[in-house]
Amino acid sequence: MSAKSKILVADDESVIADTLRTILNQNGFEATAAYSGEEVVRIASTLRPDILVTDVLMTRMNGIEAAIRVREMLPSCRIVLLSGQAIAADLLDQARAQGHEFEIVAKPLPPAQLIAHLRGDTVSENSA
């Protein structure tokens, strides 16, 4: 039996982070929630997640800054950025200019599509 993938989910809207954590835990992952970029870095240093799923736009330390810090600590950690904001494109361009590449998924995203994405499955747009 393979170990569950450890996922750190971050969003400064706690209801979103908590909902994603619950959905992922119900679907075979071991998920933990964080509510700020600073908390992401602190939790990641001890949790050592396999995957970080973070909102891009958060106050103080944004998701990209947190992702860069996590990648420096845990080079093999898969980073998935969630964003529904146009400004995130500018932040991503800045990160790419510094040599950082991350997966980005547009919000809103149905839970089944996020789970399929994290598992590496392909799901059609019509899947629920």
Secondary-structure blueprint:
Blueprint: E1 6-10, H1 14-26, E2 30-34, H2 37-47, E3 51-55, H3 63-73, E4 78-83, H4 87-97, E5 103-106, H5 111-119
Parallel strand pairs: 1-2, 1-3, 3-4, 4-5
Helix pairs in contact: 2-3
Task: Give a description of the structure.
There is one protein chain. This protein is of the alpha/beta class and 128 residues long. It has one domain: Response regulator (Rossmann fold), CATH 3.40.50.2300. It is built from five helices and five strands. It has a five-stranded parallel sheet with strand order 2-1-3-4-5, with helices on both faces. Helix 4 links the parallel strand 4 and strand 5. The protein is globular and about 35 Å long. Mean pLDDT is 86; it is low at 123-128.
Short summary:
It contains five helices and five strands; from the N terminus they run E-H-E-H-E-H-E-H-E-H.
Distance between the termini: 27 Å
Number of domains: 1
**Rg, please?**
14 Å
Average residue pLDDT:
86
Q: Helix amount, in percent?
A: 40-55%
CATH architecture: 3-Layer(aba) Sandwich
List the defining traits of the structure above.
disordered C terminus, 128 residues, 5-stranded parallel β-sheet, Rossmann fold, alpha/beta
